[in-house]
Amino acid sequence: MEYEIKSLGKFKYVEEGVGEPLVLLHGLFGALSNFRDLVDYFKQTHQVIIPMLPLYDLSLLETSVSGLQRHVSKFIEARGLDKFHLLGNSLGGHIALVYTLKHQEKVHTLTLTGSSGLFENGMGETYPKRGDAEFIRRKTELTFYDPKVATDELVDEVYSIVNNRIKALKIISLAKSAIRHNLGDELKEIKSPTCLIWGLNDTITPPIVAEEFKKLLTNSELHWIDKCGHAPMMEVPAEFNTILGKFLSEHKLA
User: Which of 71, 92, 114, 182 is in Cβ range 3.0-4.6 Å of 230 for a Cys bridge?
Assistant: First the structure.
């Protein structure tokens, strides 16, 4: 299913369903397809909102975790969201954490899956091997436990990004920014109920990262998914949605 891309001033976003707002933040190579199963499931019960992060449109100076957080903050203000559930995958999780640290009064719950912010095996620094389609396929497959999840369509999408010189530079800039912007003990300041959903076979943000998040985020719960890599909502959507659905039902806004 194709979703309608809506516009609000300079912002582009997807919005589906009615109910408590659930804001989703995608990662470095995040496409709408990454969240398709999640959107189809939760639009039955929630107002699902996905702001399109301007990964390649900001100035190089603003192409950072902080720059993207400012974009999200302005979007949420423009959209008039007061209190909502926030979910982020990979770099999107990192942005969600920085946003929550600055706006805890708005974030009713936080969900992280494969989030950067503490440690990650930086994909960005090795990706710009331009022209080598097989290398790109192997790197994309490493995102998942089951390499077949890296479809031709997904590999082609990543290939087209890294073969664009400007986009490749932006990817490197964002990957380095994520590594530099380590949140560490700041995370203890976050009091919002937090759900950590992690693939046991994640090689980009390995299980030890989830355990450290669990220790630092004092109001958090950690759920493991076996035979799953860095993007559980893509690889095992049914299990992911069940865990998230239970968490959200236990922490309703009303």
Answer: 114
Burial class (CB in 10 A: 0-12, 13-18, 19+), 40: middle
Q: What is residue 55's DSSP assignment? A: T
How many other C-beta atoms can be found within 10 angstroms of the C-beta atom of residue 207? 15
Distance spanning both ends of the chain, measured CA to CA: 31
Between 7 and 156, the more confident residue is: 7
| Statement: the pTM of the whole predicted model exceeds 0.85 | yes
> Angle formed by the axes of helices 152-162 and 165-180, to 10°?
90
Task: Quote the radius of gyration of the chain (alpha carbons, Å).
Answer: 17
Contacts of 89 (CB under 8 A, 6+ apart): 25, 26, 27, 30, 34, 113, 114, 115, 231, 233
Mean pLDDT of 39-67: 92
Quick one: tokens of 93? 């999780």
Distance (Å, rounded) from C-alpha 127 to C-alpha 43? 34
Does the pLDDT of residue 128 top 60, yes or no? no
Burial 22-36 (b: 16+ CB within 10 A, else e): bbbbbbbbbebebbb
